[in-house]
Amino acid sequence: MPKPRATPPAEGTPPAEGARPLLLNPVLERQGAYPLLRLDGRRKQLEEGGRETFDFGTGDPREPTDEAIRRALINGVPENSRYPTTAGKGELRGAFAGWMGRRHGVALDPEAEVLPATGSKEAIFHAPLAFLHHSHERRGVAYGTPGYPVYERGTLFAGGEASPVELRRQDRFLLPVEAVDPATTRIVWLNHPHNPTGATATYEYLEGVAAFCREHDILLFSDECYNDLYSGGPPPSILEVTRERTLAFCSLSKRSGMTGYRSAMVAGDPELISALGKLRPSIGVATQSFVQDAATAAWGDDGHVEQRRRIFGEKRELFKRFFDRAGLEYLPTDASFYLWVTVPEAFAGDDEAYAMRLLDEGIVVAPGRSFGTGGEGYVRVALVPGLEECRRAIERWEGLPA
Ligand SMILES: Cc1ncc(COP(=O)(O)O)c(C=O)c1O
């Protein structure tokens, strides 16, 4: 007779006396609670009360994915399913290399210098596992703060030492590479156009960082997931400067409106790509074959991206004009889909209080502190809602003190 199952304890129930505590990876335990819970709770309350909200909080735009990409996915569903490979299909690597050539003027060898990833988040998280070990003398990983949190998490889970470098307004939120300690650092992460500030880097800036990394034998990883969303001059890729001990992480999520497909590419130094090729089968992150077909269609076409650039450009201009009118300070940018706004004096630099006040008007923004140290005193506006919703949100925002 099967043994009756015990009823699991209700969530939050303290362990029974004498029960052994569950040992967790301390890195997991250190990942404090989600900092925006208070805002989330208030937002739920408002929505349950029937209040219309405008979500400028998360970076997941609503514009539809191009029809040809959707069709490629559907047509790609095979009759017989087989395991995909880590290297992915040659067509996908070829289509990506074609885009790199058109967009950045960089000729990549699709056999040796390119690997697909299941979204750039997992690739960013996993990459340090291939290059860091506790036996290494240098295990430091430098990245900017405020920033995307995955550089830190990937570092810590791989046994590396997290070395956040504070990004400052006077440096236009570019990582000051002279603050990186070459004696302890093994990897430097860059991210341009930048989340959360929208800051962009010049070719000369990238050259400076690349020269520093070359001189000190530091691996240079560049997260370029917003690189194709711009209204002014096209932002450069690190691969235009160098591919020596360098990797670029490129994603279709924002470029092609494919956040739910999970598709990205890692490209650069063939020695590093080969190391990732050895690591990744153990993790099991080979991209589904039909997603690869959709991705092949996406990298092969620039028309849909031009349309997305135009849409985000219109929203960006709408908000910039409003901020200028209202006397709100923001970091001027013409790339990514973020605007980084200084909290007005009336809120004494308290980004959480300002976000809460905006929420009372139904406007959801992300308080800067949720992106790490250095983010306090700012809020991030993600240009996610449609143009009409942006206009309505601005009407509500207009009445608040600047
Ligand atoms: C800076 C940055 N890098 C990487 C990602 C991950 O993108 P994905 O995993 O969808 O390719 C994001 C997502 O928001 C991001 O903001």
Explain what this protein looks like in three dimensions:
Its cofactor is pyridoxal 5'-phosphate. GO terms for molecular function: pyridoxal phosphate binding; succinyldiaminopimelate transaminase activity. InterPro entries: Aminotransferase_I/II_large, DapC, LL-DAP_aminotransferase, PyrdxlP-dep_Trfase, PyrdxlP-dep_Trfase_major, PyrdxlP-dep_Trfase_small. The protein has 402 residues and is α/β, with parallel strands linked by helices. It folds into 2 domains: 27-64 and 304-398, Aspartate Aminotransferase, domain 1 (Alpha-Beta Complex), CATH 3.90.1150; 81-301, Aspartate Aminotransferase, domain 2, CATH 3.40.640. 37% of the residues lie in helices and 14% in strands. It has a 7-stranded mixed β-sheet with strand order 2-8-7-6-5-3-4, with helices on both faces. Strands 9-12-11 form a 3-stranded antiparallel β-sheet. Strand 5 (185-191), helix 7 (203-215) and strand 6 form a beta-alpha-beta unit. Helix 3 runs antiparallel to helix 10 and helix 4 (90-104) packs parallel to helix 10 (289-299). The N and C termini lie far apart (71 Å). The mean pLDDT is 94. Pyridoxal-5'-phosphate (PLP) binds at residues 59, 119-121, 124, 148, 191, 195, 223, 225, 251, 253, 259, 264. The site of pyridoxal-5'-phosphate has 14 residues, from helix 5.
Question: What descriptors fit this protein?
Answer:
402 residues, Aspartate Aminotransferase, domain 1, three-stranded antiparallel sheet, N-succinyl-L,L-diaminopimelate aminotransferase, type 2, 14% strand, globular, Aspartate Aminotransferase, domain 2, 2 domains, seven-stranded mixed sheet, 37% helix
